[in-house]
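Researcher: Next entry in the queue.
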Amino acid sequence: MSKQINKIAVIGTGVIGTGWIIRMLSHNKKVTAFDLNFQQKKILMKEIKRAIPFVKKLFKKKKINIKNLKFNTSLKETIKDADFIQECVSENYKLKTKLMSEIGKYSKYNAIISSSSSGLLPSIIFSKCKNPSRGLIGHPFNPVYILPAVEIIPGKKTSKNSLDKANNFYKSISMNPVKVSKELPGYLADRLQEALWREGLHIINEGYATTEDLDRVIEDGPGLRWSLMGTFLTFHLAGGKPGMRHMLKQFGPALKLPWTKLKAPNLSNKLIKKLVKGTKKQSKGKSVAKISNIRDNYLLDLLLMRKKYEKQLR
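Model: Structure for this entry, 314 residues:
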């Protein structure tokens, strides 16, 4: 199905829209970019030229065909032939809802419409859009042309077919989609980032540490692990040979301690089972020792590589 999606429209050429354009051009997609400000074209082209060496190296491309890009100041002309529309305007319900109404009017009836929103609900964004079953969220991470994650969030009326098409399309441009089962404000990663951000603000506000202190403990501690494995698999390893169940037994009571400003949920048997089952699936039959060896080899390589860049920032 993704092979049929070659004509793309990107609405908005700010940081995120430009990132999408660069990634799509890197995969030989024909892209029409829309922005009301024609002067934005110069900024867009300058950023594309800056990023080309990085995407050529990442995707092992000898050449990126910039001729596959068109720039338009007419929304109707931009989207009329598009198979896939990636919207990237400001994070505002009123603006996005009005825009989706216009996009629905001028686009092909079954063209997939994906919003790059960072946390707004798709059911509201697409509430006035013609055929809302093709509307969804495709939330990327900056820089879009390098980071492979994209969260796909359905609205209440989004069809499975549309979700599958979007999933296949994002895979076709070397992304690793995560399909969220139902809409929720902030989606997944931003909710986790927001929790960390809020805790950091409390710590700084109360005089316990500086911004540099907090960045350093993440950069030199859990941040290194997170680039290979997330919180749950990390905590699975923290339980030793028995894994997650033992970790919860040993450290679960700490959830009731006032370490954070966020109230922890009750560690019920139902939640424990979900955590144990989930990390067991992630382990794919590998022992804690085996996963630990993979992690340690990765961290060693990462630390050696990072030394090349540390002095430029520290």
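Model: DSSP finds 13 helices and eight strands in the chain.
Researcher: Noted, moving on.
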